Automatic annotation (TrEMBL):
The keyword Oxidoreductase applies. Residues 15-339 form the FAD dependent oxidoreductase domain. Belongs to the FAD-dependent glycerol-3-phosphate dehydrogenase family. This is Glycerol-3-phosphate dehydrogenase/oxidase.
């Protein structure tokens, strides 16, 4: 997709219009386009700018959901994890977890062993095992060693959540779908029947009405607030989760480590990601605007306390973090006092011409897409039979670049000069990757490039400010931005970064 389409270039009517370009909307859009529908995806901000770029980045069954009795969700998630590991290597990668077991702390070895046996059974192979204290210390020397009995080792997977969304979006576009970011939708109705959407373009201005046979509301934590939607959406309980991103130099772990928070017994974790380490997460009611989510000082203190208990070799401070980020879980309200007991299963609702979906997990987007298309089937005769092949069209890539951008994009990047392929200082990203995104991935603002096409803004010191002159020259060259436009983008990005991602000092 070299340039972002204009409202005037859209057709007057689509089979399916998806409102919301997070993981669920992107998954539904891609599956619809690959199954022969004329599909349109729109997002009020950038693709993946909502929760789907602020998750813990795990493609996992979710051990803690087993504890809450959510067997179906865990089973679905474990199956999806296995499929994604097979089908999208380079983007969904295996991640070994260690859960240390101590004489003086919970959880006990027996409970963990039972949970992990169920987890293994669901995946169809025995992968978890016990490591004694000596083996644990050889694997991760910084772990608290007092009273250590050993650790349960088990396998899950990790991804770049925003890149997974973007691959779905552009795969849907390659299958003749149309995707447009920075366009807000309100629903058009004829009485009770939803007949299309009114689109408001935040980039070029203007509005346009587009008809649709079926509209899908996949607006995530905002799904119960899409303007003019008929009643029927379940009440959502937005639950915020925050993370610290730490430099590997301070916590050089090779595995993910999970343990229970000393204050309330909730599971917390650290895991290596994009050359840094993520520490998460919290689970608290979010009372503010679901479109403006920031970690609070109290949440970050909670994470520091968790780190201190498990990695006592240094005094952890907020100033140690490279960045912070927070997202809101679009959880369907079930009336539990404790946010962590609310179900993470997805919900779907329907009214004439409209299907809504919310909840669920990053990991289970494909299950959600199948459910939505099954519900839309009666009204959409053009929908071809269920597609059970590989997730993405084209040659299967197995390396990092191919997984993140697709095999043919990776081949193009590898033809760039070696200097353009070298990682930019302190990051895993190269100028070749940034150039590809600028040319092909509908970048509208600098933050699209640095927070979602790449994750440079989360893993480079100071949001990558020191690299901005170099990146600016590339943006000006590829997008034709003049000095004034660059200055505006520069300021917009740093203001946003300081507001959402700078560790408070
Ligand atoms: C802290 C945290 C950690 C998590 N960790 C994991 C994990 O490790 N693994 C996992 O599997 N899951 C995880 N999840 C869950 C997962 O991230 C979410 O379930 C998932 O990202 C939700 O995706 P979505 O597409 O429904 O919503 P979003 O990603 O929020 O997408 C909704 C989109 O709709 C757009 N939108 C809203 N209103 C309009 C409108 N009127 N017009 C047009 N567009 C609109 C928004 O801009 C947004 O981009 C986590 C969630 C949180 C909060």
């Amino acid at each position: 997709m070299p340039t972002r389409p204009m409202l005037s270039q859209l057709d007057a009517r689509y089979d399916l219009i998806v409102v919301g370009g997070g993981i669920n909307g992107a998954g539904i859009f891609q599956a619809a386009a690959r199954r022969g529908l004329q599909a349109l995806l729109i997002d009020a901000g950038d693709f993946a700018s909502g929760t789907s770029s602020a998750s813990s980045k795990l493609v996992h069954g979710g051990l803690r959901y087993l504890k809450n009795g959510q067997w179906r969700l865990t089973l679905e998630s474990v199956r999806e994890r296995e499929r994604l590991l097979r089908e999208v290597p380079g983007l969904v990668e295996p991640l070994r977890f260690l859960m240390p077991i101590y004489r003086d702390r919970k959880p006990g070895r027996r409970l963990m062993q039972f949970g992990l046996r169920v987890y293994d059974l669901m995946a169809g192979s025995q992968r978890s095992r016990w490591l004694d204290a000596e083996a644990v210390q050889a694997a991760e020397g910084d772990l608290r060693s007092a009273q250590l009995l050993g650790a349960m080792a088990y396998d899950d997977a990790v991804t770049d959540d925003a890149r997974l969304v973007l691959r779905l979006v552009f795969d849907g576009v390659a299958a003749d779908g149309t995707a447009l970011n920075y366009v807000r939708a309100t629903l058009l109705r004829d009485g009770h029947l939803v007949v299309g959407v009114r689109l408001h373009d935040a980039v070029q201005g203007g509005a346009r009405d587009i008809a649709a046979t079926v509209v899908v509301n996949a607006a995530g934590a905002l799904a119960d607030r899409v303007p003019d939607a008929p009643a029927g959406a379940p009440l959502l309980r937005p639950l915020r989760g925050s993370h610290l991103v730490l430099p590997t130099s301070l916590l050089p772990i090779r595995h993910a480590v999970s343990w229970l928070h000393p204050r309330d017994g909730r599971p917390v974790f650290v895991h290596p990601w994009e050359g840094a380490v993520i520490c998460g997460t919290t689970d608290v009611d979010h009372d503010g605007d679901p479109a403006d989510v920031r970690a609070t000082a109290a949440e970050l203190d909670y994470l520091l306390e968790a780190l201190q208990a498990q990695f006592p070799q240094r005094r952890w401070r907020l100033a140690d973090a490279v960045s912070v980020y927070a997202g809101v879980r679009p959880v369907v309200a079930g009336g539990h006092d404790d946010p962590s007991r609310e179900s993470r299963e997805s919900a779907m609702w329907q009214s004439p011409g409209l299907i809504g979906t919310a909840g669920g997990k990053l990991t289970t987007f494909r299950v959600t897409a199948q459910q939505v298309l099954r519900a839309a089937r009666r009204e959409l005769p053009a929908l071809r039979g269920r597609h059970d092949g590989a997730l993405f069209a084209g040659e299967r890539a197995t390396d990092r670049l191919g997984g993140r951008y697709g095999a043919s994009a990776a081949a193009t990047m590898r033809a760039d000069p070696a200097s353009a392929q070298a990682p930019l200082a302190g990051t895993p990203y190269s100028l070749a990757e940034l150039r590809w995104s600028l040319q092909h991935e509908a970048v509208v603002h600098l933050d699209d490039l640095l927070l979602r096409r790449s994750r440079l803004g989360l893993v480079a010191a100071g949001g990558g400010e020191a690299l901005l002159p170099q990146i600016g020259a590339l943006c000006q060259q590829e997008l034709g931005w003049d000095d004034l436009r660059w200055q505006r983008e520069y300021e917009r990005y740093l203001t946003l970064w300081r507001h959402r991602h700078a560790p408070p000092v």
